[in-house]
Design goal:
The complex is a heterodimer of chains A (231) and B (223). Chain A starts with 8 loop residues before the first helix and ends with a helix. Chain A has 6 helices and no strands. Chain A has helices at 9-27, 46-69, 73-104, 113-133, 138-166, 188-230. In chain A, 35% of the residues are buried. Chain A has one domain (8-217). Chain B has one domain. By secondary structure, chain B is mainly α. Chain B has helices at residues 3-19, 21-42, 51-75, 79-88, 91-121, 128-153, 159-187, 191-221. Chain B is built from 8 helices and no strands. Classes of the chains: A mainly alpha (231), B mainly alpha (223). The interface between A and B is medium-sized, with 29 and 32 residues.
């Protein structure tokens, strides 16, 4: 995955898919459903951005595990930058979801288990950033934040994937309310845009992260060169 | 993992706890004063409190007590003692002994808390059986989560703030399940109604203990 950063083909793929998501997302034939109406098109933004967030956070945890097995600075960089991009995507998801909720459920914020769960997930990752900032020693910071990242992720699994299914929720797929497929709540036309849109936003997140990692690397190089000139 | 080492480490924790009486006394005073503040703030004149509020405030007080009392398990350890542990025990043994000690401490504090709380604000719990199991699992969940968090927080500079911001989001799934089961117990629902929640709670606690055991050796190395 680290090697992919210097390749460019996936960036073109990402650009094409994002354009496809936006153009087809607004033009595709959407089923007429009560309450939802045309707002169902938010599926390509709100839902898929949160799917992308979960993918980015999983990548972040993977790099934390990799760091614990093999402590290299690059793994720690990857883990923290992916977590940061995940936070940004989470915030975008909250905003788009809030607007959607206003026009379908009637208020900007409702007491819904999925909403609460993602808010807690954001809190956990913001705490992760605070933890990183409060340690000076780089080696120690990398190891301890990796431990917290893994611990927090395992604690989050019941929160996001199990608890919402046990309680009643306004979202589909909760409280014995089946998610995709069973009710045909994602019909075939929408699916043609929905799956590519997940890939599109994931690639955008990946791109954003890779730029930040490169900036970090360049800064480290500059710092090294400067410190060589000093002595 | 050697059982004998664990018992020795636990007995050492108890000896220290009994020697410095201010710690345990402080925690009980913390409970009493926060419960009394709640009592004064609600301004009850012989009127009984709504069960939902009774439930929520009880567990919030217990959560803060847990965070404060378990925080010291690693933060207060001196560097020399940590080095000494490193020689005599494996990381798993140390974490286990701390967890068991914190569990016993939490059981004591939660029971004391519930007792004082019931004296001051009344006790609406109808199904005592479910409530006791709920208290047991809550103590287990609080102690297992906060023990690892305390060892993470002890490595950073502003450890008391970190303890709260790292711990609270992680403890939330456990706390939500506990609140739900304890509400069932207050309403006097039969045992079978809370069975699923109790099982999920147990599963979450087991996940937490297992990941703590896996991750603690890496924290241990860096001290």
């Amino acid at each position: 995955m680290i090697r992919l950063i210097n390749k460019s083909w996936w960036k073109y793929l990402g650009i094409i898919l994002v354009y496809y998501t936006i153009i087809a997302g607004f033009l595709v034939h959407a089923p007429r459903l009560a309450i939802l109406h045309e707002s169902i098109r938010n599926l390509f933004f709100h839902v898929s951005i949160w799917f992308a967030m979960v993918i980015l956070l999983i990548i972040s945890v993977t790099y934390s595990i990799k760091y614990l097995i093999n402590p290299k600075a690059i793994f720690d960089n990857m883990a923290s930058e992916f977590a940061k991009t995940g936070i940004v995507f989470g915030l975008i998801g909250v905003v788009t979801g809030s607007i959607w909720a206003r026009f379908t459920w009637g208020s900007w914020w409702v007491n819904d288990p999925k909403l609460n769960a993602t808010t807690i997930a954001l809190l956990i990752y913001l705490a992760y950033l605070v933890l990183r900032l409060s340690m000076e020693n780089e080696d120690q910071r990398a190891r301890i934040s990796a431990v917290y990242n893994i611990f927090a992720f395992t604690a989050m699994i019941p929160l996001i994937f199990i608890l919402p299914r046990l309680t009643d929720s306004l979202h589909p797929g909760s409280g014995g309310n089946p998610g995709f497929n069973v009710y045909d709540d994602v019909d075939n036309n929408l699916r043609k845009v929905f799956y590519p849109s997940i890939i599109a936003w994931t690639i955008m997140g990946f791109w954003l992260t890779s730029i930040r990692i490169r900036i970090k690397n360049v800064k480290e190089k500059i710092f090294e060169l400067e410190s060589k000139n000093l002595f | 993992m050697n059982l004998k080492t664990i018992t020795v480490l636990i007995s050492k924790e108890f000896t220290i706890e009994l020697r410095q009486k201010y710690a345990l006394g402080g925690m009980i005073l913390y409970l009493v004063s926060s419960i009394f503040i709640v009592f004064m703030a609600l301004n009850l004149n012989n009127a009984s409190i709504h069960p939902v509020i009774w439930n929520a405030i009880l567990w919030i007080i217990l959560l803060f007590t847990a965070a404060n009392s378990i925080a010291k398990s690693f933060i207060q350890e001196k560097k020399g003692i940590l080095l000494y542990y490193y020689i005599i025990a494996t990381p798993g043994e140390i974490l286990f002994s701390k967890m068991i000690y914190n569990f016993l401490l939490m059981m004591f504090l939660i029971m004391a808390g519930v007792l004082i709380y019931s004296i001051v604000l009344g006790n609406p719990v109808q199904n005592m059986q479910v409530f006791s199991i709920c208290v047991l699992l809550a103590a287990l969940g609080f102690s297992s989560t906060f023990t690892l968090i305390s060892s993470i927080a002890s490595k950073a500079s502003n450890s008391s703030t970190l303890m709260a911001i790292l711990g609270f989001p992680i403890i939330l799934p456990i706390l939500l399940m506990v609140l739900k089961v304890s509400k069932n117990a207050i309403d006097g629902l039969p045992n079978s109604n809370s069975f699923n929640e109790l099982l999920t709670l147990l599963a979450v606690v087991i996940i937490t203990i297992t990941t703590s055991l896996l991750l603690f050796p890496y924290l241990w190395k860096s001290s």
